[in-house]
Amino acid sequence: MASSVFSILAIFIMLLFQPNVSAQNSPVFACDLDFKNFTFCDSSLDVQTRVDDLVKRLTLQEKIANLVDNASSIDRLGIPKYEWWSEALHGVSYVGPGTHFSSSLVPGATSFPQVILTAASFNETLFKTIGQVVSTEARAMYNVGLAGLTFWSPNINIFRDPRWGRGQETPGEDPTLVSKYGVAYVQGLQERDDGDKDRLKVGACCKHYSAYDVDSWKGFERFSFNAVVTKQDMDDTYQPPFRSCVLDGNVASVMCSFNQVNGKPTCGDPDLLTGVIRGEWKLNGYISSDCDSLDVMFKNQHWENTPEKIVADALKAGLDLNCGKFLGQHTEAAIKAGLVKESEVDRAVTNNFATLMRLGFFDGNPSKQIYGKLGPKDVCTPANQELAREAARQGIVLLKNSVGSLPLSPTAIKSLAVIGPNANVTKTMIGNYEGTPCKYTTPLQGLTASVATVYQAGCANVACGTAQVDEAKKAAAAADAVVLVMGSDISIEAEGRDRINITLPGQQNLLITEVASVSKGPVILVIMSGGGMDIQFAKENPKVTSILWVGFPGEAGGAALADIVFGQYNPSGRLPMSWYPQSYTEKVNMTNMNMRPDPATGYPGRTYRFYKGDTVYTFGDGLSYSEFRHHLVKAPKLVSVPLEEGHVCRSSKCKSIDTVEQTCKNLAFNIHLRVTNSGTMGGSHTVFLFSSPPAVHGAPQKHMLGFQKVHLAPRQQRVVRFGVDVCKDLSLVDEVGNRKVALGQHVLHVGSLKHSLTVRI
């Protein structure tokens, strides 16, 4: 008995003095109370001085313990443990051990649409505003011990193949759009309201570097996949979003991916990490592995024959942080074996601690800092929830609309049949890398708020093994209009789950066709999915009068859908990726990373920039309830590129010239367009500026230079201005990765407008 009492007493004493044991109620902060007098705690000093002071105080074992995501506490210096891994892809997420929700403190956070739908808004202001809201909610959760300060988002890989399960996480297939999204979202997450450029609100991370877009397809797994990429494709497709993220977004972190690129694991490639990210782009932050890329290098890729050699390769390549345990377990042995120097560890932990310094982690209790007053009251605010609804409204794409179909009149419609396996879903709407939302409004709930509805699921789930056709037809035949909510969910497309087919699953096509055949009024087909679907049958079926794509629309998706269906909002979304016929999957190997077509083999190429073949819908497609017209006001017909005396292209014919500084200086022009809303309903419109360059160096057949979102009242006009930098916007990458300006005729496209422009010396 005495021993039992003693054991209980010992446990009580241990719990009493254990730091951070009840973090969410009384979080422990570095440089607080008795530990605030260290030099590294002095926030008036520059970051480098503070970090140097901290690192020199640490033992080798303490340094190694801070090379992994679950970084250990250093009790003698008053530094609590820190979990680096949190996620905020489209809201604060519970994926990753750094973030938790609490029924008593913060039960949920605002869940915005999955990224692919937000990207469809083509609204850079919206991208940044969402980032600002997410980082505010993250800071509020940090203050009460429920979240960290480093969030491994956004995913800025190119959505190259429609089968990729993680395409939903990305901003789409176009490098310009993906770059602009990445920069805006990172700025929204990171930039502080006081304008201090050296400090961070939260730390973002651009991932997965690089050429990562195969998860699990026909026996090919991301852990062992070797992406064979040409220098040209690397520099004009796969790398530009990461380059922009670092140079323009000033992101705090880049995450290297699981896969190999051209035979080398990305997390062990010194050219990709130290050479490009640190050397060329000058990353101010840390490089993290995916979870656990180093273990994958050893066990799946058999890159080296000992764990210690893997450690040496990764640290020498420039890796700073290991999501996982590998560096924690094997670094000391690697140093003892002489495979890597302690100075490499010092460099890595210096980059990690410098990031935490910029985040205020070493500034004591955050209640005295800029975001210290934030708390549970600042999460799921009415304004934040309304922004989630607005983001979904702006992203939803109207793909087909017959005369007299949408918008529906809520007063004329006495009964609405709502049918489909996604008609009354909740979690499906938030896709993957999700968090607990503030609340849900399902499509059925959103529509029922305006009209009387009759609901039939039609299928037990999205797999739709056997459609309940008869019940659905009965409901449809008796209704004034029908909304079919079909599509997929993360059982069909997700991380670790690529698709084989790009048709609607199971008997969904049958259900749609049968329901449409008996309907007496408009039939609205709603596709809820991350990737595109071959719905050519519905596009061609006159009984299917309208088609909407809603992505995975977030917590307020049902309300946003109803706003569009009933005409309270004029749809303005445009597809950020092309939709292909099922035949594409039979002709194109998913593992072929080549962007450009190969006539010799019949390979059709990738994305609207290079693909030569049929599509169901293509990048940029989308309709409105209004009609918008474009008129060219100002654009040059000729651009002369100045060359120095004696340049080789003065004496011999050149098809392109290098984009060198002396050639490119001040080489720019403006394009002015007048955009008119000729309809009777106000709304937003995305103005795209595309270019078709001369057919040299395997140039894209068309590529986007920029986009702008404008809102116009009925009959209103506005002039939209694009600045075109010749060497940046009209250049292309040649076969060996050099950026060139093609000489000859460039065709600029805006809607149906075309304008020819000659570039000459």
UniProtKB/TrEMBL annotation:
This is Glycosidase. GO terms for molecular function: alpha-L-arabinofuranosidase activity; xylan 1,4-beta-xylosidase activity. GO terms for biological process: arabinan catabolic process; xylan catabolic process. It comes from Helianthus annuus. Its EC number is 3.2.1.-. Residues 685-754 form the Fibronectin type III-like domain. SUPFAM superfamilies: (Trans)glycosidases, Beta-D-glucan exohydrolase, C-terminal domain. It holds the Pfam family Fn3-like. Residues 1-23 form the signal peptide.
